[in-house]
Amino acid sequence: MSDERTILLIEADESICDEIKNALADKPIRYVEVDQATDAVMQLAIEGPDAAIVAMELPDGGGVELLQNIRDFDKKIPIVVIMGEPTKEKIIAAKRARAVDILLKPPNYERLAQKLSNALWLDPSLIKTAGEEELDFETEMKKRKAEMAKEEAERPTEEAIPKGAEVLNVNDLMPGMKIAKTLMYNDVVYGDKGQVLSEKEIKRFSRMGVPEACVYVDEQLKKKLELKKKQQAQASSIRTDSSGVAVGAGSAPGRPQEFAKVKRSSVRVDVELPVVIKRKREDGIEETIDGLTADCSAGGCALLTAIPLRKGEEIELNFELDEGRFKMHNIKGLVRHSMRRFGTDDFPHRNGIFFTSITERFRENLITVLFKLERENKKMEDERRARYGYGPKRRYRR
Q: Are residues 88 and 100 in the same domain?
């Protein structure tokens, strides 16, 4: 076909390449696709394309240098530049290369098709008209910055604990408590004032990995529920012998008492210990990063990291509990969620981890260690409260 054009498409993202082809599907175009900067100039010399679409981020880098090499080789070829992370250096390089247009990823495909159609099939004198208004790169940057500023302004901000409410560990919540405000922020769950927590909602919070909830506490209701739990524990410890006589709590004098076993598997302990994390990035490269173990339970832990972990990815953990006496080495885990924490620079991301490789025997040993740490923390808390007077509840991490 006489008016067929050749376009050199330098882009590693196959989805973007497909979208560009769809946008120009009505034009007679032959594409020469390249995903490495090192092959681009060679293909330019071999194919002699009529235009080039150049991505600034390529697997082997070299976006800025690549533009300069293309322009040095061909002074007149129309170039459209697309970039994912705009920097001053990239923008200057694109302008020096006299790019037909500069677009941010994902690019405006309709605009890209229009620019290339004008450059390849229209007479240069017809490309611009007196009344045409073009959206240049700086205008688009300002627009995107304004949108980002608007999103930041609309993002919920941290609120103080409402008057009359207190922050409790999710494992310490009891059905019947009232949630304080409509907000989930910084790992603290708030809800509508007057909304009563149910056993189902408390379990949902626990599955989400949220450690704390901001609740209003009704003292009379709290005492009533504590009494009910105590009665249930006593009832569960009563059993009958072969003759149908009850033994255990409340049994006849002289018979041995049996007490309900404490459910220790739900214990979640604040630890704040250094951890080494082994993971595989999306590009398949294995890496090792440092972080902190914020808290730990028999089923998983919360990790604080400098970068967010991907939901659903498998990682390997190495840390130690009980002052190094209990070693959590080569523990495999699954990332359940990752949330951004504000107000900290070192480890701004909190990630909920579910242990996938520990055996039941190891889990029982872990429960014993966590239960021991929880009792020690409680003892230290009581001693400090007795020494310094009444004050806010606080866990002293080990």
A: yes
Find all residues with CB under 8 Å of 322, minimum gap 6, and list them: 369, 372, 373, 398
| Position 316 pLDDT exceeds 90 | yes
Residue 357 CA from chain centroid, whole number: 22
Asked whether the predicted pLDDT for residue 255 surpasses 70, the reply is no
Tell whether 174 and 117 lie within a shared domain: no
- Give the integer Cα–Cα distance in Å for 112 and 55: 13
Read off the tokens for 336: 């359940």
What is the domain-level CATH number for residue 273? 2.40.10.220
Per the confidence metrics, is the pTM higher than 0.70? no
Place of tokens 């940057």: 141
Residue whose pair of structure tokens reads 């012998």 in the numeric block? 241
In a 3-state reduction of DSSP, which class is residue 199? Answer: helix
Question: Alpha carbon 187 to chain centroid distance?
Answer: 13
Angle between helices 63-73 and 88-96 (to 10 degrees): 10
Coil, strand or helix: which one is 247? Answer: strand
- Count of domains observed in the chain: 4
What is the model's pLDDT at position 122? Answer: 66
User: In terms of residue numbers, what domain contains 198?
Assistant: 165-217
Tokens (6 digits) for 158: 């941290």
**Residue of 86, 102, 104 lying closest to 94 (CA atoms):** 102
In a domain, 388, yes or no: no
- Alpha helices of the chain — where are they, by DSSP H? 14-23, 37-47, 63-73, 88-96, 109-121, 137-154, 199-208, 219-236, 360-388
Q: Residue 246 pLDDT more than 50?
A: no
* pLDDT the model gives residue 144: 72
Question: Which helix or strand (DSSP H or E) is residue 213 part of?
Answer: strand 212-216
Distance CA 100, CA 116 (A): 8
What pLDDT does 305 receive?
92
Cα first-last separation, the chain: 76
